[in-house]
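ok so i was messing around last nite and threw this chain in just to see what happens. nothing serious, just curious
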Amino acid sequence: MSLDAVSVGIMWDRLVAISDEIVTTLVRTSFSTIVSESYDLTVALLDADGQLMAQGTYSVPVFMGTAPATLQHMLARYPAESLRPGDVIITNDPWLGTGHMFDINVMRPVFHDGRIVAYVISITHLPDIGGLGFGAAAREIYHEGLRLPVCKLFEAGVQNDFIIELMRTNVRAPDQVIGDLMANVTATKVGEAMLTGFLVEYGLADFASLSQEIRGRSETATRARISAMPDGSYHNEIQIEGVDGALTLACHIDVAGDAMTVDFAGTDGCVRQGINVPFCYTRAMVLYSMKCLTVPELPNNGGSVVPITVTAPAGCLLDAQPPSPTGARHMIGHFVSPLVFGALAEAVPEQIQADCGMMDLMTFQGRHRDGHDVSTIYFASGGFGALAGLDGAETTPGPSNMAVVPIEVWETLTSTTVERKYLLPDTGGAGASRGGLGQEVVIRNDSGHVMTVFCMANRTDFPPLGLMGGGNGKPREHRINDVTVDPKGHYELEPGDRITMIEAGGAGYGDPALRPREAIELDLAEGFVTPEGAARDYGFNGE
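result:
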C-alpha cells in the first residue's frame, strides 16, 4: 500500500496520541506515586514484525531502545504463531528487559481479523520486588528480589493466579505492586482496542506499510544528520564515583558517512554493588542520546536507531553479566549520555550540552503512621546542562525525565514532612550560558516508626563538567541530621530524623566573560546568582 506524506503524518501523529492515551489509562489506574505522579513508565507500540512504530510522549524515552529487544525475547519463548487473543506476557529479568528487576515489562499481542497486527508493551517501575529493596546495596542479583522469567500472566484471557500470589508473597506493599501490575494489563487492553479501531477507521488490514513509512522516513532523516557530522574517530573518558574509589568509563565513536559505531572498550569491569549496567540499557542510552543529537523533533520509533551500532566488552560496567547486581544501574547508566556527548563535542560542539546535575533517587521503606506499608521513591533533580545560547533549566532532569511527586501527595502517602525545598543559588556552572540550579530538599520522618532509606546519588565526587570554557556545576551531597553520609548507602531514620538532599547544579557552556550583562543582572534579580557569585564567576560588581 502506498501512502502519501500527508497521510503518513496524520496517522503517525494518531499513533503517538494513542500511545499517550494508553499512558493516561496507566497513570489513572495505577496505585503507586512512582507511576501516577512521577511517570516512571513507558508505552510502546510495535508492528507485527516487532518494529517500534510509536512511543508515548510522557514515556521514559530511553526505553525506545529496550522495548523491541524485550519483545524478541518474549517471542523466542512464546512464538507469535502460538499466541492467542487475551494472552499477556511479562518479565522483569534485567537482561531481557530494561536493566534492573524493578521494571515490569507487560506485553499484549493485538489481533485483527484473526492474525497478529501489532504488540503493545507497557513498562513501569514497581514499588518493590522483594530482596533488599531498590538501592545499590546488593552484592549479587539474587539479593535484589524476585526475578521473573518470560511468562504468561494471562493465557487466552485467564489470569495465572499463581504468579499473582508469588509476587504478593515476596514484596513489600503488595497492594501497590499488584495494583500497578494490573494497571499495565488494563493499559495494554485499552491499547489493543484503540489499535484495532485505528485499522477499521483507516481501512487498513495491518500496520506493515505505515510502520515501514514511519521508520523509513526517520532512518533517512537520521542518516542525513549523521552525514552532516565530520567523519572521524572520537574518544572520551570520564571518572565517576564507584564503590571504593573512582571508576572509568570510556567510549570510542567512529562516524563514517551516514552511520556511526559506538564502542565502550576501556571501561572498567563490574563491581560487587548494584550499580552495574546490562548492555540492553547501555545500548538504549546511546540510541536515545544520538536521537537527541540527530532528529530530536521526530517522535521516537525504530527507524532512527538503524544507522547506529553499539558494542561493549562483556563483563565491563556497561555490559554486566549475571550474577552482577544491577538494581541501581541508572547511577552508572545515566553517564552514557555525557560520555558520548563529550566524545562528539569535538565534532559538533554547537549541538552538545554541558553536563547535567542528573536525577537523584531515594527509596523510602517503612510503615505509615496509620500502620500500612510504605515503599516508594522520592525523585529530586539537579540542574540541566547549558547549551550554546541557552541556559540550563533549573532542577530539570537529564537524561531521564521523571516528575517530582507533589509535596502534599508525598506527605500524605508516606507520613513524612518536607520541611524545606528551594533552589540553591550559585550551583549552576558559570558560562556564556549558565547551568541550571540545583536544589535542597529536607525530609523529616514523622511516621512514628523507623524508616529505611536507600541513597542512590551520583555527581558527589566528580561534578558536572562545563563545556567550551564553561564552569562546572556544584556537586551533590546527602546528609542525615546535618552529617554527610555515603551517597550509595542505606540508613535507618528514627522518628524525627531529617535527611537532606543537596542536588547538583548543571554545568555551564562557553566562556563566562561572554555572558551578557543583562543576563547576569536578571540572574541577580531572580536570586539564581548571589552578588558574591557574580563577582567571583563573572567579574560583575553591578557597575
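not much to say yet. Residues 296 and 412 are 38 Å apart (CA to CA).
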